[in-house]
Amino acid sequence: MGSRPGGSSRPGGQSARGGSRNRPANPSTSRGRAKPAPTGGGGSRFTTRAVVLLSIIVLLIASYTSSLRTFWDQRQEIRATEAEIVMRQQAIAELEDDAARWDDPAYVKQQARERFGWVLPGEVGYRVIGADGEVEGNAPRLAEPPSSEPPPWYDRLWSSVQTAGEDPVERAVEESVPDQVLEPAE
Predict the structure, then answer these.
(1) What is the largest CA-CA distance in the chain?
(2) Helices (H) and strands (E) in the chain — how many of each?
(3) Which pLDDT tens digit goes with each residue over 96-130?
(4) Can you give the residue ranges of every domain in the chain?
(5) pTM (predicted TM-score)
(6) Separation in Å, CA 179 to CA 81, 137, 174, 175
(7) CA distance 45 to 38
(8) Strand, helix or coil at 91?
(9) Cα dihedral 86→87→93→97 (10° resolution)
(10) I want to staple 25 with a disulfide (CB 3.0 to 4.6 A). Which of 19, 74, 99, 145 is the partner?
(11) Distance (Å, rounded) from C-alpha 110 to C-alpha 112?
């Protein structure tokens, strides 16, 4: 069977798509209105591809959230450490300044006068004593002298227990020759 141009080789003039070329297959589509595609089942809103994409996005967000939180924690720790460094540098500068002041003999004399109540030769030092017998003002006070009493028995016992737990100390023993001890002195 020969084919003619613009025609079909099927009987009745129908093409393989199911209709003739001159005649529309569906009269409703020729008027400009498209028929909605049939949906399968109950009208699921999410396709498998959308669910997989959504789960990947959630996984990435969870992964980046923990990394971001670690980043922010480390930044806060760095800021706190930098603040501590600045504070310690200021303390070091103050201590260096204080140490430099102690190199000045005038500052040493001033501190001796204030702390110990010392006076230079030829000066007279005064202390104001109140009605209660206490020194008034910012007079320096000496620390309590050490007590001459022996420590209590339990302190001595505990120190002997601590000493017993230490390695024994080897004492240098002088070797004596018995003949030297028995020799008469002349």
Answers:
(1) 161
(2) 4, 0
(3) 999 999 999 999 988 888 887 788 888 888 778 88
(4) 46-112
(5) 0.37
(6) 75, 74, 15, 12
(7) 14
(8) helix
(9) 160
(10) 19
(11) 5
